[in-house]
Specification:
This protein is mostly helical and 405 residues long. The chain has 3 domains: 2-44; 55-150, DNA polymerase, domain 1 (Orthogonal Bundle); 165-383, Intergrase catalytic core (hpI Integrase, Chain A, Orthogonal Bundle), CATH 1.10.443. It contains 15 helices and 7 strands. It has helices at residues 28-41, 55-69, 74-92, 102-114, 119-138, 165-174, 180-189, 193-197, 238-249, 271-285, 298-312, 315-322, 330-352, 356-369, 375-383, and strands at residues 2-10, 16-24, 204-205, 210-213, 216-218, 221-223, 232-235. The strands form 3 sheets. Strands 3-4-7 form a 3-stranded antiparallel sheet. It has a two-stranded antiparallel ribbon with strand order 1-2. Strands 5-6 form a two-stranded antiparallel sheet. The protein starts with a strand and ends in a 22-residue tail after the last helix.
Length: 405
């Protein structure tokens, strides 16, 4: 008869080796546990490498590779890296990882507070530190993270202003003709600006009047949408249909893989430049306040949710349109489609009211007046299957200026 004991042995490189032993000539489990305790007492308390492993080395050799294996979103990784280089590594990078204590974190929080960092920013720094030490704890380098609850300042959320239907209408009316379809699209769908700028013509079905959201644009790269629930189908009504029809007639890049909204060379528009050079001047001319970090294109999402909920009292319509619902069954998909159609109709009615037809006709005339490409040429390219959808072309075409985009 024998007992088998299992334990971990620390290696010089900082990793652990699992070991098992068969123990003979012992009487019962209690005696076997005594042998195990003796083995554990004979081991170093921690891997030897941790005595000279500083935080920066651990981040470079272990934490970053772990992050990559987990396939963390690029935007999240970029945010973490920014926090690391600006705050964490300058303060703690050269300190041995097993010597970092709650007092080190307290000093860092005090320093950030005195420098004027807001509570939310400080909490973001602590999130990164906690992520590093969670991995160190799993690797057996530390017994506990030095981040404590007391370190986290209370982040009181401020109520963000929500645009009214009249303000949204004024913004869309004030958009330059080459961006009119984009502003109508963001106003009537509440889609994220990255999702809109990632749209290619293959994602728009004019026959069934649907837009398929399945990717987003981040720093000039196509990436998956924010969450799995953000992959969705958006139904659209008459106003958006006519705006998009006029836009495709005015476009010189209309292949299935071409971007719907693009710069002169066909590459997608930069969201930051679009916000700074187009949206902000519109808000200023319209005397619409733009508080810091609260008046970008994301404000259209808040407005869409608020207007739908106010008009119908049905928040699920807004959740469905914005991509927050968890749709997983055939029945739910059917409900989702009907909800999308209703949500789009509600936004058209609330924002543009009875003036929808006049709005469309007026801006179609604007596009025709600046056209240089004939309707026949666009129709001919469409007949060759470049768009993969049959629809009536309205308006002329032109090569849009870039306005620094």
């Amino acid at each position: 008869m024998y007992f088998e004991i299992r334990y971990r042995v620390p290696l010089p490189n900082g990793k652990w080796m699992h070991k098992s032993e068969r123990i003979y000539d012992v009487k019962g489990k209690k005696a076997a546990h005594t042998v195990l305790d003796e083995r554990l007492r004979s081991l170093p308390a921690e891997p030897q490498v941790s005595r000279h492993l500083n935080l920066k080395t651990f981040v470079d050799d272990y934490w970053r590779p772990n992050f990559e294996r987990r396939q963390i979103k690029l935007s999240t990784r970029s945010g973490y890296e920014s926090v690391l280089w600006r705050h964490v590594l300058p303060a703690l990078g050269e300190v041995s990882i097993h010597e970092i204590t709650p007092l080190h974190i307290e000093d860092l929080v005090n320093k950030l507070t005195k420098a004027g960092s807001v509570p939310k920013s400080i909490r973001n720094v602590l999130v990164v530190i906690q992520s590093i030490f969670s991995l160190a704890e799993d690797d057996g380098l530390v017994e506990r993270s030095p981040v404590r609850k007391k370190h986290k300042p209370v982040a009181r959320g401020s109520r963000k202003p929500v645009w009214t239907a009249e303000q949204v209408r004024n913004i869309v009316n004030s958009a330059p003709p080459i961006f009119r379809a984009l502003f109508v699209l963001v106003a009537l769908t509440g889609a994220r600006i990255g999702e809109i700028l990632a749209l290619q013509w293959k994602h728009i079905d004019f026959q069934n009047r649907t837009i398929r959201i399945e990717q987003s644009l981040w720093n000039g790269r196509l990436v998956p949408p924010k969450t799995k629930d953000s992959v969705r189908i958006i139904q659209f009504g008459n106003l958006l249909a006519e705006a998009l029809t006029g836009h495709v007639a005015a476009s010189s890049h209309i292949g299935p893989d071409d971007f719907v909204f693009y710069k002169a060379d066909g590459t997608p528009i930069n969201a930051d430049v679009l916000r700074r050079d187009v949206l902000y001047p519109i808000l200023d001319r319209s005397s619409i306040p733009r508080p810091k970090r609260s008046a970008g294109f994301h404000a259209f999402r808040h407005a869409a949710a608020s207007l739908i909920n106010k008009e119908t009292g049905n928040l699920k319509l807004a959740q469905s349109l914005l991509g927050h619902s968890d749709i997983s069954t055939t029945a739910d998909t059917h409900i989702f489609t009907e909800a999308e159609r209703e949500a789009s109709a509600v936004l058209e009615k609330v924002i543009f009211g009875e003036s929808v037809r006049d709005f469309v006709r007026g801006h179609e005339q604007e596009q025709v007046s600046v056209g240089t490409e004939s309707k026949a040429e666009v129709q001919n390219s469409n007949e060759k299957g470049r768009l993969g959808a049959a629809f009536e072309i309205a308006g002329g075409g032109f090569e849009p200026p870039t306005f620094g985009l």
